[in-house]
Amino acid sequence: MALRAQTANTPSMRLAAKLGFIEVDRFKAYGAQQWLGLWSQAKTPGNL
Length: 48
Description:
N-acetyltransferase domain-containing protein; alpha+beta; 3-stranded antiparallel beta sheet
């Protein structure tokens, strides 16, 4: 699963980290810095 959010959106960035998304890339789009994260159920601590 992939997630994209603006880095300035602190609540979204905090939620992404809490859900276990891992940063893959940062890029500029729509005039703002964006963050791309990936999540895999196999990578979460409870499923190792």
